[in-house]
Design goal:
Layout lengths: L2 H31 L3 H20 L3 E6 L9 E5 L7 E7 L13 H7 L5 E5 L11 H16 L5 E11 L1 H11 L1 H4 L11 E5 L13 H8 L2 H6 L13 E6 L7 H13 L4 E6 L6 H4 L8 H12 L8 H4 L2
Parallel strand pairs: 3-4, 3-5, 5-6, 6-7, 7-8
Antiparallel strand pairs: 1-2, 2-4
Helix pairs in contact: 1-2, 2-3, 4-5
Length: 321
């Protein structure tokens, strides 16, 4: 067969092959994380919507290494804001029980936030069983260092970075800003981050935990890591503003452990807001950030961003009375 015809066939098959990849990837996450049947269609829709956006959006810069490695799990995607001038930056760290997930599945978040003026960064990290704690947290610290150093090259404002995570990704996000070992690896002041969004977060493994204990111990690697890698054991006052969102029907990261963590943080004077989504479960809350599915999490984050000065002119936030 002539080479030109082969290229034409590949170009026609490309969307179908990659669409199938996204569908299969979503279904693998469904299998790994016990997604209720009622959410499967919405998750597939969000994944495919994001796939199309990732492929077509002219402001996307894809597969950027954030370390000196060709490992695909040590790369990130940048989606430039649909607005002029330095933009606030939304850095998203995906979930998947620390053992599944990929940045390609979450471009629908960029589709939702780019028109609102955010540059969006989707981060990957190494997964279990290839690594155990703390290496996946170390990866995300390196990604955040890269964002702080380079995001201005993509129109983002390094002084207006928001870090967000869902499920395992929110555990990683929380540990980055709570534990001294990770804060000490940041090449910038962790308090310069404008805000942290935690949705459906594993914050306490010992009380009201509904996660699989065998998976937790495997992922954390040792009993010492298991004991240490709990955000509730690192409560502190000096953190960026945090917005914590949990559904009251979450069968994996219970509302009880999320509200207890938020309360303990508030008790020491940390700048924390806590939102319970009535009827929300582990997957519906995060899905509320995806284009076409915007719900409580999206609205709450936009208000949180406005309240913390995401759209203020340079110096305007400090100038407020």
């Amino acid at each position: 067969m002539p080479q030109t015809n082969k290229k034409k066939i590949r170009s026609k098959l490309f969307p179908f092959v990659h669409g199938a990849f996204i569908s299969i990837a979503v279904l693998l996450i469904v299998a790994n994380c016990g997604v209720p049947v009622k959410h499967v269609g919405a998750l597939l829709d969000a994944g495919l919507e994001g796939y199309g956006y990732r492929a077509d959006y002219k402001g996307a810069v894809l597969d950027i290494p954030y370390t000196d490695s060709d490992n695909d799990m040590l790369k990130l995607d940048v989606f430039k804001a649909q607005s002029p001038g330095p933009s606030p930056v939304f850095v998203f760290i995906h979930g998947g029980y620390w053992k599944s997930g990929h940045r390609k599945l979450y471009a629908s978040f960029a589709k939702a936030l780019n028109p609102k003026g955010f540059t969006v960064v989707l981060v990957d990290y190494r997964l279990h069983p290839d690594v155990t704690y703390p290496l996946f947290v170390d990866d995300c610290v390196k990604a955040l260092n890269w964002v702080h150093e380079h995001i201005a090259e993509f129109g983002g404002d390094p002084g207006k970075i928001y870090v967000a995570g869902s499920s395992a990704g929110s555990h990683i996000s929380a540990m980055m800003f709570l534990a001294d070992e990770f804060r000490g690896s940041m090449h910038f002041d962790p308090l310069s981050v404008r805000g942290v969004l935690l949705t459906s977060s594993p914050l306490d493994f010992d009380k009201d935990n509904l996660l699989d204990e065998d998976i937790l111990h495997d992922v954390m690697g040792t009993q010492g890591n298991y004991d240490y890698a709990q955000p509730i054991k690192h409560v502190r006052k000096d953190v960026p503003p945090m917005l914590i969102i949990n559904g009251d029907r979450d069968p994996l990261t219970s509302e009880a452990q999320a509200s207890r963590f938020a309360r303990k943080m508030k008790d020491v004077g940390a700048p924390v807001e806590y939102l319970v989504v009535p009827g929300g479960d582990h997957h519906s809350v995060g899905l509320g950030l995806a284009a076409g599915h915007e719900a409580e999490a999206f609205d709450a984050f936009m208000k949180f961003a406005e309240d913390t000065g995401a759209f203020a002119l340079s110096g305007a936030l400090e100038a407020k009375p």
